[in-house]
């Protein structure tokens, strides 16, 4: 069964902390994504990566950074967590190739910054 | 990528067909129509996609109009477990395969 695994379902962090959200996929996918989801706003893309060590900004990259040192792992970093980063964070992966390629999502990490 | 328009909410009786519409009037010739759904507190789940022709799989059917400006996702026999937010997305099969999610349609299946 194909899988995208996020390291935590729930996290509580303090304002100013450095926060790491980890995502691992076992499908050998080239592309990986980080989204955040807030009520009434749908999913918004933070960053994505189409190859190891490559990254591209999404719609709302401010306050975040990412790391992709290995193909299967994509990390989202909150350099100094703030209360407005309280949200549900979703990781996804997809392959690159001819034709359409669906994305597979993890279960999400609900982050609360206090 | 083309923008999509979906009704914010719909109800459907259990056992009946659920027909979820999506408008994508600015779709380009090389853009696919994708449908995902998100059950409460879970990550989105892929349902089906199509380019021009109607498509069917074990979960649903996708009907795309001839001009490709709109589509309908059909769940043939809705169950309570189909209660979810359904997202219609159109995109080019680009190298990054980015997905732009709108706010979707909240489908409630009623016993």
Give an overview in words.
The complex is a heterodimer of chains A (114) and B (111). In chain A, a hairpin with a 2-residue loop joins β7 and β8. Chain A has 114 residues and is mostly beta strands. The mean pLDDT of chain A is 92. In chain A, strands 2, 4, 5, 6, 9, 10 and 11 form a seven-stranded mixed β-sheet that branches. Classes of the chains: A mainly beta (114), B mainly beta (111).
How much helical structure, as a percent, in the residues of chain A? under 10%
What order do the strands of the largest sheet of chain B run in, or round the barrel if closed? 1-9-8-3-4
Strand and helix order of chain A: EEEEEEEEEEE
Number of DSSP E strands of chain A: 11
As an assembly, this protein is: heterodimer
What share of the residues of chain B does DSSP label as strand, in percent? Answer: over 45%
Intertermini distance of chain B = 37 Å
Largest sheet of chain A: 7 strands, mixed
Order of helices and strands of chain B: EEEEEEEEE
Net shape of chain A: globular
* Uncertain runs of chain B: none
Helices, strands, pairings?
The complex is a heterodimer of chains A (114) and B (111).
Chain A: E1 4-6, E2 10-13, E3 19-25, E4 31-38, E5 42-49, E6 56-57, E7 64-70, E8 73-78, E9 87-94, E10 104-105, E11 109-113
Parallel strand pairs in A: 2-11
Antiparallel strand pairs in A: 1-3, 3-8, 4-5, 4-9, 5-6, 7-8, 9-10, 9-11
Chain B: E1 9-13, E2 18-23, E3 31-38, E4 45-50, E5 55-56, E6 61-64, E7 70-75, E8 84-92, E9 105-110
Parallel strand pairs in B: 1-9
Antiparallel strand pairs in B: 2-7, 3-4, 3-8, 5-6, 6-7, 8-9
């Amino acid at each position: 069964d194909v899988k995208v695994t996020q390291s935590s379902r729930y996290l509580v962090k303090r304002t100013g902390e450095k926060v790491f959200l980890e995502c691992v996929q076992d499908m050998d996918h080239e592309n990986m994504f980080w989204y955040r989801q807030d009520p009434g706003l749908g999913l918004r893309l933070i960053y994505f990566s189409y190859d190891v060590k490559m990254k591209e900004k999404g719609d709302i990259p401010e306050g975040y950074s990412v790391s992709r040192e290995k193909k299967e792992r994509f990390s989202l970093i909150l350099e100094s967590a703030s209360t407005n980063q309280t949200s549900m964070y979703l990781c996804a992966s997809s392959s690159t190739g001819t034709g359409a390629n669906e994305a597979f999502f993890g279960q999400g990490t609900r982050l609360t910054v206090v | 990528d083309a923008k999509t328009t979906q009704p914010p909410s719909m109800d459907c009786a259990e056992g009946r067909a659920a027909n979820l519409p999506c408008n994508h009037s600015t779709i380009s010739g090389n853009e696919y129509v994708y449908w995902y759904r998100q059950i409460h507190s879970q990550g989105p789940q892929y349902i089906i996609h199509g380019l021009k022709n109607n498509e069917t799989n074990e979960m649903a059917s996708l009907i795309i109009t001839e001009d490709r400006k709109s589509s309908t996702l059909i769940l043939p026999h809705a169950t309570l477990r189909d209660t979810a937010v359904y997202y219609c997305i159109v995109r080019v099969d680009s190298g990054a395969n980015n997905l732009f999610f709108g706010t979707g349609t909240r489908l409630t299946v009623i016993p």
